[in-house]
Automatic annotation (TrEMBL):
A GO MF label: DNA binding
Entry-linked InterPro entries: LysR-type_TF, LysR_HTH_N, LysR_subst-bd, WH-like_DNA-bd_sf, WH_DNA-bd_sf, YidZ_PBP2
Pfam families referenced in this protein's UniProt entry, alphabetically: HTH_1, LysR_substrate
Gene3D superfamilies: Periplasmic binding protein-like II, Winged helix-like DNA-binding domain superfamily/Winged helix DNA-binding domain
Keywords, ordered alphabetically: DNA-binding, Transcription, Transcription regulation
Organism of derivation: Rhodophyticola porphyridii
Residue intervals of the HTH lysR-type domain: 12-69
Protein family membership: Belongs to the LysR transcriptional regulatory family.
Protein known as: LysR family transcriptional regulator
Highest taxon, organism lineage: Bacteria
CDD domains given in the database record: PBP2_Nitroaromatics_like (cd08417)
SUPFAM superfamilies in UniProt: Periplasmic binding protein-like II (SSF53850), Winged helix' DNA-binding domain (SSF46785)
Length: 303
């Protein structure tokens, strides 16, 4: 517990706290200065004030950047929460007029959500808000949450388990699975059974490069295994690879329904039960009452 007297508290302004959080995230003073639009001198002055107030070096200069001390690491969640509370107080957005807006909306998504949710979002949103511009970034789960923390995204789309409490998830739809293989695959003329499924060579989508996935966990529960021969990081390369080989892939059902035919693929229902997952629009808790975020989430749902 840190005892900060009233005089010390008056020396803490929001800029100093944002500099602290910026250094914790980026570890380079020059990068924090650029992102915040401050001079190097202003950053140095903020660091000095922080060191004086907390009676600790907080950040040690290293060849790779600024290394936080144990005190800085302990302070980070408390300072982050303080900044979030102030941000919530300043961003009680209640009115939002889509037709009059000209801001840039930034969304993080994986290619499944880009292919299944973003096209409809852009169509519906552009009809109501022609002045808005959209930037869609390809981000995995951890990177998307970090970008939401930093205010670099308005929304993240996808399925994230164990979502920290500082985020809010609004369900968009429940997603199941479908199996795809090329139209002249030997499986196309066989009875579609679990045995036939297990005898095939399988491709998985794994950003981390794992050769297992949700199907393997379900098979393990049945005491069964399949033969996974390849992993790719994205869903569209998976569709292309399956179209050009004897591999099969088990992919999100909406993606398959929308795009499998473009690759000349045959589809089947999985011959085993696979737990569905919930695709959600995720915002930072500081935007919980934002009318713009409510509107944006509504635009993700078909009418």
């Amino acid at each position: 517990m840190y005892d900060i007297d009233e005089i010390a508290l008056r020396r803490l302004d929001l800029t100093v706290l944002l500099v602290f959080l910026g250094l914790m995230q980026h570890r380079k003073a020059v990068e924090v200065a650029g992102r915040m639009g401050l001079t190097q001198s202003a950053i140095s002055h903020s660091i000095k004030r922080l060191r004086d107030i907390f009676d600790d070096p907080l950040f040690l200069r290293r060849p790779a950047g600024m290394e936080p001390t144990a005190v800085a690491i302990a302070l980070e969640p408390k300072i982050r929460r303080a900044v979030e509370i102030l941000s919530e107080a300043l961003t009680t957005e209640t009115d939002f007029d889509p037709a009059a807006e000209t801001r840039v909306i930034r969304i993080g998504a994986y290619d499944n959500e880009m292919a299944t949710l973003v096209p409809g979002l852009l169509h519906r949103a552009r009809a109501q808000a022609p002045g808005l511009r959209f930037v869609i970034r390809s981000l995995g789960r951890e990177a998307a949450l970090s970008a939401l923390d930093a205010g670099e995204l308005d929304l993240a789309l996808g399925f994230i388990w164990d979502l920290p409490q500082r985020f809010q998830a609004e369900p968009i739809h429940e997603e199941g699975y479908a199996v795809v293989f090329r139209a002249d695959h030997p499986l196309a003329t066989r009875d579609w059974t679990l045995e036939a499924f297990l005898q095939a060579d399988h491709l998985v989508v794994s950003p981390a490069g794992d050769l297992t996935g949700v199907v393997d966990r379900e098979l393990e529960n049945l005491g069964l295994t399949r033969r996974v021969v390849a992993a790719v990081p994205l869903f569209f390369p998976a569709l292309a690879a399956v179209a050009a080989s004897d591999m099969v892939a088990t992919l999100p059902g909406r993606l398959v329904a929308a795009h499998a035919a473009r690759f000349g693929l045959t589809t089947r229902q999985p011959p085993l039960a696979i737990r569905p997952f919930e695709v959600a629009a995720i915002r930072h808790q500081r935007n919980a009452k934002s009318a713009m975020h409510d509107w944006l989430t509504a635009m993700l749902r078909p009418v």
